[in-house]
Amino acid sequence: MVSVDPSLCGYCGSCVSVCPVGALDLQETRLAVSEACVECNLCLSACPMGALVAATESPRDLPMLQASYDVVVVGAGPAGSTAAWQAAEQGLSVLLLEKRQEIGSPVRCAEGIGHEGLSAFFAPDRSWVSATVRKIRIQGLIGGQQRLLEAESQQDQSGGVGYILERRVFDCALAERAAQAGADVLVKSAATAFWWEGDSQAVVQVQSPWGHHEISARVVIGADGVESRLGAWAGLDTTLARHDLMSCAQFLLAGVDIDPECTYYYLDSHLAPGGYIWIFPKGSGCANVGLGAQSDLVRIPPVELLTRFVESQPFLERGSAVTLVAGGVPVGLPPPRLVSDGCLLVGDAARQVDPITGGGIANAMSAGRLAAQVAAQAIESDDVSQAFLSRYEQEWAQGVGRRMARNYRLRRAFAPEQRTSERFWLVFAISVGAAK
Ligand code: FAD
Hints:
This protein has helices spanning 14-18, 42-46, 78-89, 115-119, 167-180, 230-233, 302-312, 314-317, 361-380, 386-398, 400-413, 422-431; strands at residues 3-4, 24-27, 30-33, 52-53, 68-74, 94-97, 112-114, 129-133, 135-142, 145-152, 162-165, 184-186, 190-198, 201-208, 211-222, 245-254, 262-267, 276-283, 286-294, 320-330, 339-340, 343-345. By secondary structure, the protein is an alpha+beta fold.
């Protein structure tokens, strides 16, 4: 029987179209080969990725990448692409690895970012901004009463209080910046292991359509998101407690009637225990409508709770869900160690998300920039040891990390049932920018 290498399969369906016996079936994220396969091998030449292997054929390795880099970055989200871009700008040789075949897709985000967080890197660009936010509306059953808070930004030259991005485009644009600065970017290329060889050498094992390789690096930056494995491979404990994970579901609803400049938040301890519901405008009658609930309090799957919410809101009910997003947001404190010999963690992999809002894009980019700076200093000093790289931990803890730690303490100070109290209402309003 023909076999499929899932890490190479591009899920394009070409092979299915030429199979004379219907032995191939393209399921959503998997190509299945059934017993009906007669080993005619017609599908092999239809596959653009070389993912199908005849029963008699042994796997092949394609031409080699550069064997060693100053910096290898694992994961091309905002954290990884920023790290690769900033490291390449400092003249380092950089490889940016992304396991997905399309950077930024599928989106696992509500795509909101504050003006301050974005402008620390660049001005908003029409190609990746779907909406400019000027108003914030928070609703909730607070202290037993329905409350509504509406805030409007003082309009200035800069645009608005924040933006709703088109992450699919934004993430690609960031990776393009890294490439323009000189980084090698490789998609559909997953890091499958990391180890420290000693003598200032780290190694990343990579599986990609170009073969299975071991690539050496002076420093490896782990930007592999909430599902990070790099930390564990490097001996760092990144396991989250269930109360530190928000389990989220989101629809991109088309055909809804909302204010295109307003973000809406709902505090509802029944529908979103320990979390909240959001509606973020995406332009042209579309919105990201999502719900995040603290994972240890989830009794009914968030996607079901979200459906109930949408059905209860007349202005959303007529919309159609054109995309379903499922995702986890780490809202704990970063682990005690973010670095080991030859390795730094950034972004969701380092749990650097705001514990109250769940916002992590701006933090991921800040962490990526800081990690690149420290990696460059370490390489320059010919010392990539954990002791040297711990500068990154210290600078993070003294900067953005200080605010995150405060917000974590605040979140934990309010038991989930108290998150509909007056005091938490105010904390939440300040965190999302609706109050000072
Ligand atoms: P990611 O964006 O997750 O990127 C990690 C990348 O690493 C991925 O592309 C992944 O494919 C790749 N990768 C993983 N493993 C490997 C491997 N072994 N080899 C190669 N590549 C690998 N934040 C906000 O600021 N605003 C919001 O409105 C917001 N809404 C959210 C809504 C939801 C439902 C969710 C789930 C999250 C939301 N967040 C939001 C959080 C935000 O999406 C993340 O904090 C942010 O994307 C973190 O960036 P990152 O680069 O660290 O990780």
